Amino acid sequence: MFLVLLRRLRLAFYTLISRTSLAAFEKPDIHFFRFGIPLVMKCTRRTFSTEAHALVFLGSTGLKLPIPHLLDSVELDGNTYTVMTLMKGVPLFDATLHNNLGNPEHPIPIKYDAIATALWTLEQPLKDKGKVMLSASGHGLPDPIQFFEHYMNPQPSVLELYYHITRHLDEEGRPQWTTKHLLQAYPEPMQAVLDDEVAWVHADLKMHNVMIDPTTGEFVGILDWEDSGWRPRHWQVLCLRWYGRAQQGCFANCFRRMRFPDKTEKAYDAMPKLLCYMAT
């Protein structure tokens, strides 16, 4: 009871000295601190796979990543309130619309790539070796076959993950689609995805989560690390190359021209043969 009271007092204090932005209708769960304090508080409607968990993990790796630094987190009433440093600047998406920073020759895609590949140097703990869809809290990640609206449990292997997301491939209507059936029906694409590595992936590494200096156009950092976690490495490439509103064509094309490790490229090429749609 005493600990819960302390949490409520901390949250009340943070709420008192912060406010939502003028664009609160877009991000109602983001509070900016008053009095020029360079902090922000983010409310996540769950207590697992949160940004706080990810920032604690990434901060412990020794990598010098351009990400927010965690100051505090409060778990209360099923929500997590993450207090972290404010990254100044504007989203690359907005800057691209106004300043043409989406030019394919702009150096920011190179920094994107450097950060993604730096994350790939991280090694899984032995107890989690080979597991995927695994967050920093030890829980699951958004399920791609449910349009990321629900969370799936961590999968023991890439094979089990692809079994989960390829049940639509069972054209013979078997009572039970198994990993054995999957491997027999699609041996080459499955071998390609299984040959790739497991890596720490930011599944929303897109233009709206990249902050740049609005004056110089220089890269500042990357936001929104909740739901990052251990996934097949080629899923990061899919995210970077995916065309969409949040990843304009000229910018996505930068990553289509970049070449990643051969086995990752082969796995990326094999994905369309296994998935009924590709979404990130």
Structural summary, described in words:
- It comes from Rhodocollybia butyracea.
- It holds the Pfam family APH.
- This is Kinase-like protein.
- GO terms for molecular function: kinase activity.
- InterPro entries: AGP_Transferase, Aminoglycoside_PTrfase, Kinase-like_dom_sf.
- By secondary structure, the protein is α+β, with helices and mostly antiparallel strands.
- The protein folds into two domains: 2-85, 2-Layer Sandwich (Phosphorylase Kinase, domain 1); 90-273, Alpha-Beta Complex (Aminoglycoside 3'-phosphotransferase, Chain: A, domain 2), CATH 3.90.1200.
- It is 34% helix and 16% strand.
- The protein contains ten helices and eleven strands.
- It has helices at residues 2-16, 51-59, 92-99, 108-119, 158-165, 179-185, 187-195, 234-241, 249-257, 262-270, and strands at residues 18-20, 30-33, 39-44, 70-76, 79-85, 90-91, 134-135, 198-201, 210-212, 219-222, 229-232.
- It has a five-stranded antiparallel sheet, sandwiched between helices.
- A hairpin with a 2-residue loop joins β4 (70-76) and β5.
- α6 (179-185) packs across α7 (187-195), α7 (187-195) runs antiparallel to α10 (262-270) and α8 (234-241) crosses α10 (262-270).
- The longest helix is centred in the first third of the chain and has 15 residues, at 2-16.
- The N and C termini lie far apart (41 Å).
Order of helices and strands: HEEEHEEEHHEHHHEEEEHHH
- Classify the helix fraction into a percent range: 25-40%
Structural class assignment: alpha+beta
When the domains are counted, the total is: 2
